[in-house]
Every structure is written in C-alpha cells, then in structure tokens.
User: What shape does this take?
Amino acid sequence: EKVWRARVSTACEMSTLTVVTRPARPDDAVQLDGFVDGSHQGKVYGRFNLGQLIENATATVVAIDPKHDDAVVGFLSVTRDIPLPFGVPKDRGLERMQWAKSEASTVGYPSDVAAWVAGCGVKAGYEKVAVAPMLKAAFRLLPHLDAVLIAAPPEVEREPVGTSFVKMARTMKFALYAASRESVLPRLRVRLARVDDHDDLLPLVASAANDPRAAGGPLSRLPGGEASTSDGARGLGDEYALATLISRALDDPGKKCVLVAEAEEGKTGKMSFVGVMAVEAVDGDEAASLAGKYDLAAYDNLMPAPDDDGTGEENDEDNSTKEPVAIRVTMLCVDGAYESQSADFLDHAFDAFPEKDFCVLTLPPQAPELPLATLAMRRVAPTDPEADDALHACHRAGQLRGFTVRLAKDDDYEEVWDLLEGMTDQEELCTAFADAAATSNTSQAAVVAICEGQVVGYATVTLGTEISSLAQCFDLTKVVDVGAHGQSAFVELEDCVMNPIFAHKRRFVMCEAMRLSRATCVLYQLAPGEEEPPPPDVVSLDFRLVAGRRSHTGFDAHFALYAFTNRISNSPRAAINSRIVVVGSNEAALAVLDRLLTNNQCAFNNVTLVTNGGLAVGGVASRYNRASIAKLALENGGGNTSTGGAGVALADAAVVGLDRERRCVYLDDDSMLMYEMLVLVPGRGDQTRHRLGLTLEDETPVERVVDLMANLTKEDAERLKAVIVYGDTMEAIGAARRLLTAGVPAAALRVVSPTEDGTLFAVAEAAASKLRA
Assistant: This one.
C-alpha cells in the first residue's frame, strides 16, 4: 500500500509539471552539469562539449521550471552539420555521416532545411514534459527548418527524445531519426474570415484589447475600436464591430481582407482560432504620404516599377496615374503562444491581393514589439524628423522557399555587380568581393545568398582575427564566452549587402557565413567620422556593441567594436522604439548612453542626446575620453535611423522649455523633441580642459594619477616637459609629491586649483612660509 501511494504521488506530481523554454546562456552550464553526463552524450549524439554547444551550436535551448525558481531541467542543442560520431574510427565515422546525410535527402530533408541534434539532456522527473517544448522552441528559432534529425545508434530510442522522433532508415549499428516541423510545430492554417467566425474570435480579440502589453499595441485591437463596451473591454468598439469589419471586407474584396488562423489544440484534433489579420490596399494619397516621410526608394515608393520604353531607360511618365502596389496591415491579433508564426499570414495576404507586391505596417513608438515585423519585415529609415511611428515593409518574394547560402565563386561577380547597381562605390565593393572570393585568397572568405538561382546578398570576412589587443580595450567577456571559441574562430566582417526584399534574413546569412568559414564569432570595427561608411544593417540591428574599457598599455582603440555569435543570433534583443531624450553633455549623460547601448536585453532604437556645444568630457577623473566616445559609436549614424551607427541622434542645442503634459522638450533652434522618457543630467561638468584651452581634438593625455603612475617609467618621467596637477585636496598634494619622487622635473610641474583661493594649497604655502621664517 505504501508503494502504491508513492507511485500515485509521483504520477500526480508529473501531471502538474510545466516547463517553459528560452535560449541557453553560458551560466546555465553550472546547473546542466548536475544532470548531463558528457560521456554518455558523446556516445549517443557524437563529439560533445557543453560550453561550446551553448555558445556555438546553431541553436541551444533550455527548459526551465517556473515553479521551482526557474531551475534548468533540460537542454537541446542542434547544429547544421552532423556531429562526428564518438568512439569509432574516423573513417567509419565519416562514412556514417555521409550515409545519414544521403538518407535524409532521400526522405525529403536536404541539408538546407535540416538540422541535427548534437546533445539533449533532461533532469530526472521531467522526461515526459521537457523534450516537446524544446523541440518547438528550436523550430521557432530556425524558421527555415523542415526537420530536426538524429544520426545515432538505436540506443537513442531509450533517451527522452526517443518518443518525439521517428526512425526513417537504419544500418546494423546506426539509424536516422526525424522530427518534422509538421509533427512538432505545424504551420498555421490561414483562410478568409467569415461573419459567423465572430463569436469564436471574440475571446481572442477581447484578450488583446484588455492587455496593455499585447504585441503591436494598438495594432492588436480593432481599427477604430478605442471606445469601451459595457463590460469595460477597450479596443472592441460596439458589440458587433468585429463582424462589421469582416462583412465590409467580404463586400469589398479588392480593397479589404480579413484573415483568420487556426491551430490544433494539443492532440485532440480540435481546431481553435489563434490569430486574425485585417489588411487594406494602400491608396495613392497614403503611398505619397509614406514616401514623403520614409526612405521607400528600395520599395519603389510603393508604386509599380517604372516601365522600360525599349531604349534602356525607364519611363515613369504615367506612373503617377497608377495605383500603388502595396497593402497595409490595419490589425494583427495573435495568441501569444503563436506569435512567432505570424509570418504564416503573409502568403495568404498577398494571395488575396495578387497584383500587390509590398506589405507595410506602422507602429507607434510606445507599442510593444511585434514579432511579424522582426521576423519577416524590414524597418524603413525615416526621412522626416517628425515621423515618429516605426514603418516596416516587406515584398511578397521575401517569403519564397529555397533561400540558401554558399561559398562565393569567381563567376558570382556579375550578379554581385547587378546587386550593387546604383551604389556610388559599386566598383570598389565588387573588387573587394572578387578579392575575397578568389580561391587563392587564404586570408579572406566570401559567401553569397541565393534564392531561385539568383544572388540576392553577399558577405565578406577576414579570417583569423587576433583578439588579444582587442581584449585590452573592450570587455569582450560580457558579450562573448571567449573560452568557448578556438584561437582561429574569430573573423572580422568587412561587408554585408542584402537585397532589401530579403533583408530580414540577414542573421541567417551571417550564421551561415560563420559556418562556411569555420568561424564561431564575427567582429566588426566601426571607426568614427562622417566620412566613414555606415555599418551594414546586420551590424546595427543584430550584432552586440561591446562595452569599452580604458587601456593604459600604450594602445587604446579609437573605434567601436561589435560582436556576433550563434547564441547572440538566437537571443535577439527586444526592440524598444519609445522615444528617449537625454539632456546633458557631461560624463553622466555619456554613462546613461553607455548603459542603453550596451544593454544585452533591449535595443533602444530611438534615442536623442541633446548636448549644447558638443561633448565636454575628458577631465582628470574622467571615465570617458576621445577613445571612449569612439567605442560608443556616437560619431556615426548622425540621426534616428534604423541602421545608423549607434542609433543615437545628436542635437547640438540648448533646452529652453519643457512641457511635461505633452511630453515635449523645446530647443533654442525653434525645434522640439517628443519623448516617452526624458533623462535630465546637466550635472557639473569639469571644465578644466576648456579653461586651459584643451579640447578632445587636441588628444592631450588627461589621466588619474594612479593610472599615470602605473605605467610611468623613470626614463619617461624625466623626459616630461609639462605636467598639470589639478585639485585642492590632500590627494592632489600627494600626487605632486609622487610625481617629483618618480623623477618628473620640478620645472615641468604645474598645480592648478579648482577654487579661487586654492584652500589647501594656500594653507600649505602659508605653513611652509612660517617654517622658513
């Protein structure tokens, strides 16, 4: 009886266990080591190194138990390449890998749509609840995958993953197993909405209307439905607003469309509504308005492409009379569990408007991030300073299947030339591409992105980047698990150009560039100066800015450093479009920007620094100098664009007014800045440099005495011709004495007091006079 009760208790506990998933982090290894046997993992899945998989695998996810302090209870790691079998001769292992790859292609899973399990471990008691959610998470992170595969001995069937995979082929001691997307995370079933869907859709729409954090904010609610109903639900309008929206779309299918998405609930087979999208055709006035506020040239300003009149020149005389070829999303409400599949709507939306090529949507600055915008669209840079909403756009071809990346070849040159047509530095870029793609070039590599046999993007990298000097100037360990990368695993990105239609696939291209060049980390150096070209979109949007550190070894970097790894790719930062205005030109203001720009969880895309007269930093105890500013990339970009430098706009003006109710700052150049968050850090900046006629451009070394003494040799001290000691404290007096003791000539030493009376120095001088008397 006691044994039976114990079994019942265990069964009840199992039935109530729930897990959630997230991308793995390096610090998860501590908990994973408690239940993951590396030796066993190697025998089942192949060569195994937990730390390297977390950092470098195509995707590594963990399952956590939210009811037990978010304890890590499982992990799943997948890679694009088949893990090398462990414990067998190398030639036999390679033979098994080739067999598995061939069989996978035979059953419909070629290498461009498949990934391989490189490790999977589950804590005791969670075997039945952890694997399925982790598989779903892997498919969400890698939308191009059709299947996750395992090439392993038959013993894998006794592992926790065994019940989620189907055996596809086998030899005497080896087998191929597959978990297809359709069996794990089937694509949404999307169709045109019907009026009688109203009652079933209402709970979904009402839930978003009552959720202030619903993805997309106002876009998740019924258009024009800000009025409250009798039950207090905002965003629903009148009782039958949803039915009216659907009915009007059915009555005018050439201009409006409402789509619904269904998904199967568990294993019951019952279908339920998980999303609704409303779309309208863009009219001429709206297209002109958007083209006037945003840089839509890459999208032909949402108009039909100009016709070629046969002379080789485009004829756009009649373009003004044509209808725009764009649709606009006016509502998108998706159940939170299915938001990562929002892109499934797009093909059906374009099918409803066969003559339209573009789809756009706008989001107000304070709206929560919309997965559809980040997964399948590209944010368009504003050209009007008053264009506060974020505009996202995509082309119908952006959803085409068969998007792949391969190493570049010499004969790709002509297609790359066509890709770069219209760019001012076309010839220079093509020459650089050809050099990197040359088979004789062992120091560089180039890859091209292909869709339907056409080159739609490329990237070039320099191999074997040395990081020892970079580590002196940048805190790489806060962004990259340096120990998980080999000596030759770092490469430097030279350029990455994508056809705007496929710009949303930039992270995939970068991950493939790493894999094909046998690297695990890509770095990018951005030098300051308006004459420098802007960084590629993938750097501004997907790389991480590495925090700088002061170097006192004689070398200090005067550029910003960005880093990218597979783990970073799978952990994109939440896009924050809220307008943040920072007022100040001192160290405190720079510290605020430093924290914003190097945040690993959030990407702040709409930050303005109001600094009257420029950045006045570089004092004696300064944390920021010329190099520090360069490391923040503040002198690149020059505006609030989606792709410019640090993403910080610099406003050289003084604040003359503040309207808290309107959330508006007035500047002395008669302009104004709207904000959701205002940071006032006027402070008391040290003006010693300016009093002495020193500017940042002078590059005059200004150091704390402890930093100077740490690297000052006797020979260097004797050669110094002028040293200024600033301060009126005992520490300043001690600094002067330390410098004299170190060998600095007395004639080269000058003491500057920050106060008119020079309190302590005056007392010291008076005391010295009395002693002399």
